[in-house]
Predict the 3D structure of the following.
Amino acid sequence: MPYPFIAFISVVIFSLVHIYAEKVRTLGVLSQGRFLSLGGGVAIAYVFIDLLPKLGKSNQLVEQILAGFFPYFERHVFVMALLGFLLFFLIDRVPSGWLKDEKFTLSLCSYALFNFLVGYAVVNKDNPEVQPLVLFTIAIALHYFTNDYSLCESHGEAYRTTGRWVLIAALFFGWLAGLTIQLSVTAIALISAFIGGGVMMNVTRHELPQGNENSVSAFVLSAAVYTAVLLNIHA
């Protein structure tokens, strides 16, 4: 099976999550908390066990290439990850004086950019930050579940009727861009770092359990299980 088609399947899975994530709202409060915490546990394990070590390796490559252009930035990849983190942090801290529609538009644009970059990243089979693709897909899909739930809680009908379709379109536009525009290894590493920074911020903001004992148990258990899976794969 051609790899671009495999990447397309990954994008379809992400899109289905955007469509059906709000169904989590139909679960009981207890089951709902467990499910969302499960997604958060998987996402946080992915960040610390899989993504951060890969970013460290990518930084060595990027540093060698960009040292002559930006000699004072010795941690190029980590700077980009920090920018991704800060972007979503600032959006989350929009001043209270903003109108609700303005907040929604800003959030939607930032998440659309995130989705475009995810769609682009998965097309490159040589991108270490998204390989193996099945594990990346699982982690990001569960991340989308909890993130979409939060967006639906905050913006309601605006997200259901417009927002999620914009995010789905951004995924497919990113996938198409990945097929037609070939960026350098350096650029792809920086894109992946930005995605990683965004994931880290969204995990800490939306996906950590809020003190419920069952949710905490689900979070810790899912993090432990996914950590074991990742360690066995990379052993």
